[in-house]
User: Fold this.
Amino acid sequence: MFIDGKWGSDGKSFDVTNPATGETIEAVADASADHAVQAIAAAERAFPDWSRTTAYHRAAILQKAHQLMLENKQQLAELMTLEQGKPLRAALNEVQYGADFLQWYAEEAKRIYGTSIPSARADQRFMVQHQAVGVVAAITPWNYPVSMITRKLAPALAAGCTVVLKPAEDTPLCAMKIFSLLQEAGIPDGVINLVTSSNPEPIGDVFCTHAAVRKITFTGSTAVGRHLATLAAPHLKRVSMELGGHAPFIVYPDADPVHAAKGATLVKFLNTGQACICPNRIYVHRDSIDPFVSTMVERVGRMQVGNGMDAGTAIGPLINSKALEKMERQVSDASAKGADVVCGGRSLSDGDHAGGCFFAPTVLNSITPAMDIYREETFGPVAAIIPFDDKDDVLAMANDTSYGLAAYVYTRDLTTAMQSFERLQFGIIGINDINPTSAAAPFGGMKDSGLGREGAREGLQEYLETKLGGFSV
Ligand code: ADP
Assistant:
């Protein structure tokens, strides 16, 4: 735990496990609801002074933090691979992406502009300013254990907020390392506080109900996000929710199916399929099915599954055995209902795979709406391909989900691209592009995928109140 500038523990701890080997890496402090209350109190005490610092001062600290994160890139990436499992190269990319938020919001802190509004009264002037909302409580997931933290902390700190963070119980080590770097960068005591815990519920309850917390920011599952938003609602706390996704990936008949399959493979198997923007329903025009599937299968066949620390590993383990069971259940349900298991389709437990949660990268063809995988978020290395015949129907099929985070479209036709961009009910649309993310771009979902945006100017706005001044002159 890191509360009011001090690292500590009251003796209770929980183990952090390596998902590639099943071995314990380290034991970390197990915080309770009382610790969350202490952390909020520290953040409340620190808020007046921190919020009154200049944007230039906060920007300089964030720039320093950016520099320190890059200097510690290798160490942070290795820690991430150990506790989360992704291949080291992917972990290095994530640290870079995480550091980008520190730099981008260091720059943006200086651009929290207000406005002056002409009044209908000759003796009146209006002025609008934006001020920090106050104490922020943040909850982050395990799949991107560095960037999901900086994506919240950097704009919150840039705005002048103070923060209490509860990271995921699977990945507290990255959070601890980030906090020590932020401390080294010169963030004053109490401005950032960390509670690591094996039991998130009581801490979430405190975050959502404590009078001093003005804002909840959460990234995780839709079920937990809905629960937290419900708890926070009577207290009228502001909430940002980055929740689940069920991304469609549409390959129109005019697209190059080989090019599209290469892109789909890269983004589907990213982080072993454990990203909320991974494509879950891959709609391929029937004329393109054969080259698409054969390219994907050929690419998947080259992917080495193993410990992320080993050079050459492309697919790491799933985070835990529950995730493995979900893959097994979705694949057997689809197969029983007539899906074609083109490759993979099973857990891997022999030899080097013995201790970890490994699932063979899998391609399923002929998926239909009757199968669980058509509706449920997958969150694993299983590509579900749905052949379609009529170009006019596919957007309705893609929109037929309660989720609305990311969607992908492959086409060479400008009209098709523009219509898809405008009609898809998703917050992030990749048009012939599998990586529509950046610290500079707004990330977030519609419908059950959440509320608010992270990154970009919109991400800073989430931590600011609008204040109007009416001046009689
Ligand atoms: P996932 O299914 O991807 O693990 P979760 O939504 O369960 O996603 O977890 C995301 C984050 O939410 C983690 O930090 C986890 O500890 C936290 N969390 C889970 N359940 C609760 C809860 N009831 N209250 C507060 N936080 C929770």
User: Anything to note?
Assistant: Residues 139-141, 168-169, 200-201, 204, 220-221, 224, 227-228 surround adenosine-5'-diphosphate (CB under 6 Å). The chain has a mean pLDDT of 97.
